Structures are given as C-alpha cells and as structure tokens.
Amino acid sequence: MADELTSGTRQTAEAVRFLESRLRTGGAQLSVTVKGIPLVEASVGTSAGRPLRDQDLVRVWCSAKPIAAYLFLSLLRNTGRTLGDTIQLESITSEMTWGELLTHSRGLSSPDMMTALLMPRTRRRHACKLALQHPADAPAYSEYVWASVVADGIAELSGQGAISALERFMHAFALADDICYEVPPADRVAPSQWGQKHGRANRHFRQQGIDFDAAAAGPFANARGLARFYDAVSGNARDNGSQVAPISDCLDEILRTRRPRVHDPVLSRTCSFSAGFAVGLADHGYGDLPSEASFGHSGAMGSSWAFHDPAHGMSVAFTRTACIFDTGLIDAEREAVVREVYSWL
C-alpha cells in the first residue's frame, strides 16, 4: 500500500504540472482510479478568485447524462421493460424505443420526432415548437427534450420527483458529497464560465423561464465524484478498502446493446452510444488508447468528460470551470490528457 501511495503521489504531482502547462482559462480537476483505488486527484487554476480544490463542485452538464440514464435503465428493468420497447408512460407515448431515446439526442432532433412529442408537458411542448420553428437549432432544443423525457420517466417509474430520486441514488452509493442535484453548499461551488456563446436555444429557454439545466443533465459534481460513479457502475467501487457490488447488472446491457455509428447533429460527429453512454470512444475525441469496451460521456462541448476502461479497471474524470466552444481545441486537449493518463499505468 505504501508503494501505491508513493506512486499515486508522484503521478498526482505529474498531473498538476501537466494540467498547469496546458490550462488556458479557469480551473480544472482530474481524477483517476485503478480498480477503485485513487491514483490521481489533482486540481489546478482558480475559480471566483481562489484556488480550485478537489472537493469543489462545478457544473458538469451532459457528463452527468449517464447517471440519469443508468438510474432510468435500472427502473425500466425493475418494471420488466427492455430497451427495445416503445416509450409508453403516462407522461409520454412515442414510437421511439427506450434504447433510441438513450442514444444521446440524435433521434430527438428530427422534425417528425419533435412533432410526435407535442404532448401535455407545457415546457417540453414549447421546446418542441421552438425546434420546429428553428430547424437549424433543433439539436440544441433536443438536449432539453431529452433531459425532460428522462426526468419525467425517472419520476414516474420511481414514484417520486426526479431530483429526489437522483439524490437518493447518489446517497445509496456514497456519492452524495461529490455529485449534487440540489443546491450545493456555497463554499464548495466553483462558478462556471460560459464565455460569450450561448446560442439562440438557450436564450429562448431563459426568456420562457425554462431551466436548461434539467434534472437529467445539470448537477454539480467534481472529478472525484464522476470517477467514483464509473467505479460503482463497473464493480470497482470500494467501501472501507473492500470491493462492493456494482450498482446493478445493467453494465452488461451497456456493453451489449451498442447502437450503430451514425451522425449526431448535436455533437457534429459520427459516433455511437449505448444505454446512455458514449461508446467507441475514439469517435468521441478520446484518442485510440481506451480499449474498445470503454464507455463514458462528455458535457458542454467536451469541457467536462469521464470514462471507464474495463481492460485496465480504470476510471478517469475531468472537469473544468470554463466552457470552451471549440470542438477541435477540446478534442486535442482531451486526447492529450488521456494520453498522459495512460502513460502513468
């Protein structure tokens, strides 16, 4: 154990130096675990005029989609539904299957699907109408629709509010201190810097009083919490030094039910998803080092991201306080961080 600690200390120092050499604005966190054991926990830069800390919570945007998708998938299985079933709930009925819904936002950006989703939920109906009125911005509107449908599904299947269900989910696996769906303590919040580009969709949402940071995609978290979530999913989570069971056996479904590679209009890339997770990570800008079985997700154009590589039992999470709206720059940064992480193994 002493050797592991010494090694982890060295690699954390290397991580700090590496991130400081590449960070352009704001602050960033990096967490790496191997078989549930922390290898790196590093925070660099500042937020709101003070140094960013490992325990600080930042907006992680769509990086948290797998958490909602995983809880949703667990609830579906508990009620005997499968990913191949069409969506049939009190709040939504659609020809789309649950598996298609959990393929990021690809299906939800089509005019036909938006038309089909013009149902009783007032705020979602408004978002669908805006998408039909502004086809070029349909992918952005579909982000809200996705989060709204998943949040409603969680609420209906769990019999409680979506945020309450997600909070209980985090508490059940000792993640509540690091992934927060309620308003977190003020002394632990690291404000996000959105920059200048918000887009027409987000302006419309704000004007209509719609919170774009819906329960399914807008919690506060730190890199440590996201890495531990992937440990819990994969069965590598540890409790007082001993391994605990994975959240459920849904991991098999993630790895087995892969969607085909298609063009995703939200991400503007050809890629694949499975049960709410990004798979085939090379297509998602992670480089070619993660194994084929790796799965993860990114948020805010890739400004935050996390993944698990079963071949190494490794979970990696990265958060930053500034959102950079440059896919090429983000992909280059992420691939460099991933390459550096694999050099420590």
Keywords:
345 residues; 2 domains; three-stranded antiparallel sheet; 11 helices; 16 strands; 20% strand; disordered N terminus
Quick recap of the structure?
With 345 residues, the chain is an alpha+beta fold.
What does this structure look like?
The longest helix is centred in the first third of the chain and has 21 residues, at 2-22. Helix 1 (2-22) runs antiparallel to helix 11 (327-343) and helix 5 (122-133) packs antiparallel against helix 6. The model is unreliable at 1-7, 194-202, 204-213 and 240-245 (pLDDT under 50). The chain is globular and about 55 Å long. The chain has 345 residues and is α+β, with helices and mostly antiparallel strands. The chain folds into 2 domains: 1-56 and 222-257 and 304-345, no CATH class; 62-217, no CATH class. The strands form 4 sheets. Strands 3-2-1-16-15-14-13-12-11 form a 9-stranded antiparallel beta sheet, sandwiched between helices. Strands 4-8-7 form a 3-stranded antiparallel beta sheet. A two-stranded antiparallel sheet has the order 5-6. It has helices at 2-22, 65-78, 98-101, 111-116, 122-133, 138-158, 162-172, 199-207, 223-234, 250-256, 327-343; strands spanning 27-34, 37-47, 50-51, 58-59, 86-88, 93-97, 179-180, 220-221, 238-239, 242-243, 262-264, 269-274, 277-279, 295-299, 304-309, 314-320. Strand 1 and strand 2 (37-47) form a beta hairpin. It has 11 helices and 16 strands. 39% of the residues lie in helices and 20% in strands.
